[in-house]
Amino acid sequence: MNAKTVDVALIGGGIMSATLGALIKQLQPDWSIQVYERLGEVAQESSNPWNNAGTGHAGLCELNYMPEAADGSVEASKAVAINEQFQVSLQFWAHMVAAKMLDAPTSFINSTPHMTFVWGEANVEYLRKRYAVLKDEPLFAGMEYSEDPKVIAKWTPLLMDGRTGNEPIAATRITAGTDVDYGSLTKQLLNYITTNGAKLRTETQVTGLKKLHNGHWKLSLRDSVGNTPHSITAKFVFVGAGGGALALLQSAGIKEAKGFGGFPISGQFLRTSNPALVARHQAKVYGKASVGAPPMSVPHLDTRVVDGEKSLLFGPFAGFTPKFLKEGSWFDLPGSIRFNNIFPMLAVGATNLDLLKYLIGELMASPQKKLDALREFFPDAQHEDWELITAGQRVQVMKKDPKKVGVLQFGTEVIAAADGSIAGLLGASPGASVSVPVMLDVLKRCFPTEFAGWEPEIKKMIPSFGTRLSDTPDVAKKSFAASAKTLKLST
């Protein structure tokens, strides 16, 4: 069965496809959109609220965005850039809430202070330097710093409960942080586009992509129910399938995907809904990563709000499986190996022995070791209050590098064909938090002619579009205040 040709095919029912669909629906409402999700529901992989920490990644508390250089210096450009991107996402969400395209903002975003917390003289000295660099940045206005246990206990008592000794400690806090339920947001965005004409098909897997002579793409499909094969053609395809994106981009045969590999990292969290504990911790508190740990494994103790209920999450505890998706196949990793990416993948393995050692240690970690890691943040933690849950899979990008045979890249990367007919997203954190600017980049790269005509409408949705907020303090302040007011956030 060969269906009609659609303007846009979105593969994967996660936050990226949902965001791109919502942007297109407003910029080009006459375009037909078809969304495919292989599972029975959308937002069940990385966008599911229990498969991620729900941090609105804005560089406020994530120390891995500001590593200490060999000479001891600390540089803010990456943290500032990520905050710039998150502000774009906030503005778009605020626009959609104001236009009643999304439900009440508390259904997907809530104010939650973002903190960092370190111990030991060397780490305290690092945090002092980080604060000194950030405190005058316009996008980090209001950041506080303290080495006083009484002040830190006032910010969030759980960190100080049961803490003894004279070890130096330090923390920063900024009250303008957020907790985001990306599962709820994804479902609401997809509800908006389907209410306005887009079609969503679940339990349908895209098994292959083939470029046709007319420049369109043939999507080979298979339904889970009945195992029925069929196909559709699309003028533009976006592969937002999380860990499944690499295989589909490889199947498309575009040269831009050659040389890329994926390194899967699994994870677990400790979770509690004990009201007495939840009431004593209202923050997302990030620490420093262990030696060799990937950035996505930086330990943090987080307030989470899911379906209106608060809980606490600690982790993640990293691990390894060859699956690229939580509901994936054990053959995902070996099946992704190609002649054009095997050498970069081998080079990454040879040059990241600390990471491999760390992952082996995490796989062998006992329940007691996990509790001990939690007790570094919350000394009075008791085993019976916490349950271990499995998080989503993250697939870090491995690729060729001009200076090396291969490099392991942390972050997200857009891969787009030269003719703009297909694009996909690889990688992980900051991911969902920067979904709006990343999808705007997809539109700009794939529709350069149309994009110029879309810019006036984009500026209505995102008032700061085309402006560096970090260079314009007054604009930055007004921009966040406007988004915060609509989204009911602290400023």
From TrEMBL:
EC number: 1.1.5.4
Matches recorded under Pfam families: Mqo
Pathway annotation from the record: Carbohydrate metabolism; tricarboxylic acid cycle; oxaloacetate from (S)-malate (quinone route): step 1/1
Coiled coil: none
Cofactor(s) it depends on: FAD
Enzyme class: oxidoreductase
Keyword annotations of the record: FAD, Flavoprotein, Oxidoreductase, Tricarboxylic acid cycle
Catalytically driven reaction(s): (S)-malate + a quinone = a quinol + oxaloacetate
InterPro entries: FAD/NAD-bd_sf, MQO
Molecular function GO terms recorded: (S)-2-hydroxyglutarate dehydrogenase activity; L-malate dehydrogenase (quinone) activity
The keyword Flavoprotein appears for this protein: yes
NCBIfam families referenced in this protein's UniProt entry, alphabetically: mal_quin_oxido (TIGR01320), PRK05257.1-1 (NF003603), PRK05257.1-4 (NF003605), PRK05257.2-1 (NF003606), PRK05257.2-5 (NF003609), PRK05257.3-1 (NF003610), PRK05257.3-2 (NF003611), PRK05257.3-3 (NF003612)
Cited HAMAP family: MQO (MF_00212)
Protein family membership: Belongs to the MQO family.
Protein name, entry field: Probable malate:quinone oxidoreductase
Gene name linked to the record: mqo
